[in-house]
Amino acid sequence: QLQLVESGGGLVQPGGSLTLSCVASGFTLEHYAIGWFRQAPGKEREGVACISSSGGSTNYADSVKGRFTLSRDNAKNTMYLQMNGLHPADPAVYYCAAAYFGGCPRSIRMQPFDSWGQGTQVTVSS
Fold it and tell me: What are 113-126's pLDDT values in tens digits?
């Protein structure tokens, strides 16, 4: 059974940092495009960052570019989202996702991602 499990969310002060982790089980992330999405209350889920399965394409939403970094550790079958400079526009439930031999378009969309984690809450408050 394919499963993704996020961790690392929590409460952070404005300007602070968090690192989200997402561990995959039941499949090997190496051949998958990986991505992070977020959904704030009352808003649609939006793409934050992705890397194509080949690793040749990496994209970030304009709102997080320069502050967030997506990476993966194939040996640990884990993906990460390093978030720096968090500010009041960033709080949301963050989801990791994977797509077998998927791409990473400039405009990050939920398709073709078909494996999803359960989400982890990120709160930014002083």
Answer: 999 999 999 999 99
